[in-house]
Amino acid sequence: MKRLALVPVISAAMIALMGTAAYASQYVAYEGPAFTGRSVVIDRCGPSDIPFHGSYKWYGDGQSGRMYNQPGTHGVMHFELASNRYAEQRTPVGWQSIFIVC
C-alpha cells in the first residue's frame, strides 16, 4: 500500500518541477552590423565560441557572461556582461568566445 501511495506524490512533484519556466541569459551574435544577417543564440552554461562578430544583443536573466578575445575562453577575461542587465552593440565586436556563469 505504501508503494502505491508514493507514486502519485512523485508524479505530482515531477509535474510541478517541469511546469516552472527556466530562464537563462542569452547572447545573440549577428553576422552584420546593426543586428543584420544571420544570427545565433548562445544560452548554455560554460564556454562557447562566438561564430558572428557584426553586432550583438545580451539579455541578462540571472547569469553573467564573461567575454574573451580568444576562442575557447582562453587568455584573460576581457569584459563581463551583467547578469541582470540588457546590453547591445550595433557595430562589430572583437570577442571570440563567451563563458556563461551558471
From TrEMBL:
Segment forming the signal sequence: 1-24
GO term, biological process aspect, one: negative regulation of growth
Highest taxon above the source species: Bacteria
Alphabetical list of InterPro entries matching this protein: Antimic/Inh_G_crystallin-like (IPR015791), Antimicrobial_MiAMP1 (IPR015201), G_crystallin-like (IPR011024)
Entry keywords, A to Z: Signal
Pfam family, one: MiAMP1
Designated name of the protein: MiAMP1 protein
